[in-house]
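User: Mind token order:
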Amino acid sequence: MSKDIDTQILQAYLDPNDLVEKLSQVHLKNTKHHSGHIHFHFRDKSDHIILVWSKGKFKQTIAKSPRCKNGQYVHWKDSEFRDYNREDVLGELCDEIELVTIDHDCLNKTWPSYYDFIDWLLQN
């Protein structure tokens, strides 16, 4: 998918609630576990963000630093994303995303850009 994706479609998938709902409806509907993480890594940033969902619903956006141990997170105000609103960070930085990873019991997958991830989501 190119960056020329329909603006309305892109806007819907930049909202964490809509993104997690679509992912849960389409790809995770046949699983017992409706919890997981979507990791977004950005060009020129060592920290990355994680969308956390539970029971098929978006719960929170957190920041993760390479300095954090497994299961630990950095406070948003101490992260490289402190100047961004948690709800808007995907929209503001989607062109900077260089890696998207889903961490779920039955779906572990990686994409090289946000646009590739959305393309996969729309086609599957």
Notes: The beta strands are 36-42, 48-54, 57-64, 97-104, 107-111. The chain has a mean pLDDT of 83.
